[in-house]
Write a structure and sequence with these properties.
The protein has one domain: OB fold (Dihydrolipoamide Acetyltransferase, E2P) (Beta Barrel), CATH 2.40.50.180. By secondary structure, the protein is α+β, with helices and mostly antiparallel strands. β9 and β10 form a beta hairpin. The chain has a five-stranded mixed beta sheet with strand order 8-1-2-10-9. Strands 3-6-7-5-4 form a five-stranded mixed beta sheet.
């Protein structure tokens, strides 16, 4: 079998870090995730509203932290916000690092690119329309695949946020 034929038959796989917000499951490409930490108390930033919880000092680096529940329209319950499973996923974007608060980090899954189907029914005025890459069925879970940079830029000015 020639190399050309082998390359044509090869499928592309994506690895996603999966997490839960409320009852919904989401995934972010592994390459965008720098680390996952336990929540730290965030220092509020005067004048920043919406999903910005504040900033944290992570080993000398100031990192903005967002509660993306608000951006994605997911309800955050008192139980979720006080859960021992809650984590902050530190992500890398072209402009810098930022953290997102999630209710629970689930696992890392590998899926074929063709398994990610386009997202139906997102209205064009929804804040996160561009951030949703698609939806994949993994076992008994539907995972909404996100582009973290677009998720933040859809709701905030990411260049100003990353330069905090």
């Amino acid at each position: 079998m020639s190399n050309e034929r082998y390359d044509q038959n090869q499928t592309t796989r994506t690895q996603l870090v999966t997490f839960r917000l409320g009852r919904e499951h989401y995934g972010i490409p592994v390459g965008k995730v720098k680390e996952i930490i336990r929540p730290m108390e965030a220092c509020p930033i005067p004048g920043m509203a919406g999903p910005v919880e504040g900033v944290i000092n992570l080993r000398g680096e100031i990192i903005p932290v967002l509660r993306i529940h608000l951006v994605l329209g997911s309800r955050e319950t008192e139980e979720d916000s006080s859960s021992r499973k809650q984590r902050v996923i530190i992500l890398e974007s072209g402009e810098g690092r930022f953290g997102i608060v999630v209710d629970e980090v689930r696992d890392v899954v590998k899926i074929e690119d063709e398994e990610i189907k386009s997202s139906p029914g997102v209205s064009s005025d929804h804040k996160c329309e561009e951030a949703i890459l698609g939806i994949a069925q993994v076992g008994d879970r539907m995972i909404i695949c996100l582009d973290p940079r677009k998720l933040v830029s859809e709701s905030l000015d990411i260049e100003n946020l990353a330069s905090v």
